[in-house]
Design a protein that fits this description.
Length: about 300
């Protein structure tokens, strides 16, 4: 006799609603974590803005909504110091520094990425090795050079050193250049394009996200730099915002009148332009970081 096979019962197919439930739960967890992180990172700036709008006795009461509003703190700092001049100086210096380092680093990076020459890897390693050199080592020789040129008391040293590139940005942009198809450049060479045209008309437009990342990084670094203005600037009309904030801190801080609400108002004026710049460039900035991550 042959054994009678038992009929096989098909496993129940999960409904679409039950399949979407884990994804929805995961999304809610992700949104919760991101919301908590956003609150944590936003709180210091919210406290700064709130404290800058409080009268002196209430500055450090940790209340995000002031009980008594004192918007005159901004009028006080605006009349006590040439804040507008400092803001303009910071914008000029930061844009000059960011533009100079982005273009110069891109030129060097293109050379290391496109050309094949003996010792290329060695010289690129030497460029990267400069990142291990502390800035304090070159601070005095750099000052002596600018002093010999008669530019030690001007804003030129704050941005002109970027004309020689930066090792970090050279590495960043070179990695992007290496991901470009070499056939594009070979086809342009067949059509008679020179090396500068290859760089300016082909490589630069294709690596725009990487250039924007370098530009934004240097813009923030130059905007918040205090050390160089402390070394080179003596005339208050040439101060940048960080250097001006040091003067405001000396006047209204603990060593002065102890009017911290005025100091915090100046800190808000220093911080807001960088927030605006990031929001204007965040699409390209995120695109550049994501592209670099994929290439890495």
């Amino acid at each position: 006799m042959t054994a009678v096979e038992a009929p096989q019962v098909a496993a129940p197919t999960p409904s679409p609603s039950s399949a979407r439930r884990p994804a929805r739960r995961h999304r809610w967890v992700l949104w919760t974590v991101l919301s908590v992180a956003a609150v944590i990172f936003t709180y210091p700036f919210a406290w700064l803005v709130s404290a800058s709008l409080k009268p002196r006795p209430e500055v450090f009461d940790n209340a995000l909504i002031p009980r008594h509003w004192a918007p005159g703190n901004y009028a006080t700092i605006w009349s006590a110091a040439p804040v507008l001049t400092w803001l303009v100086n910071s914008v000029v210096v930061a844009l000059a520094a960011a533009t100079a380092v982005t273009i110069s680093s891109a030129i060097v990076a293109f050379g290391f990425a496109y050309f094949r020459f003996p010792g290329r890897n060695f010289w690129f390693a030497m460029v990267l090795g400069t990142m291990m050199l502390p800035g304090a080592v070159t601070m005095i020789p750099t000052y002596l050079i600018w002093n010999e040129l008669g530019l030690a008391a001007t804003q030129v040293p704050l941005w002109a050193t970027n004309l020689f590139g930066s090792a970090f940005y050279i590495f960043l942009i070179r990695q992007f250049f290496l991901g470009l198809p070499r056939e594009l450049f070979e086809a342009a060479r067949v059509d008679g394009a020179g090396y500068w045209r290859l760089f300016w008309r082909i490589a630069m437009p294709l690596c725009r996200p990487a250039l924007i990342v370098a530009f934004v990084f240097e813009l923030r670094a130059s905007w918040s730099d205090l050390l160089k203005p402390l070394i080179y600037l003596r005339d208050p009309q040439l101060f940048t915002m960080p250097r001006g904030m040091k003067a405001i801190l000396d006047q209204f801080g603990q060593a002065g009148e102890s009017r911290w609400e005025v100091v915090l108002a100046g800190a808000v004026l220093t911080t807001v332009p960088m927030i605006v710049a990031f929001f204007l460039c965040q699409r390209y900035f995120v695109e550049g970081v994501a592209t670099q991550a994929r290439k890495g």
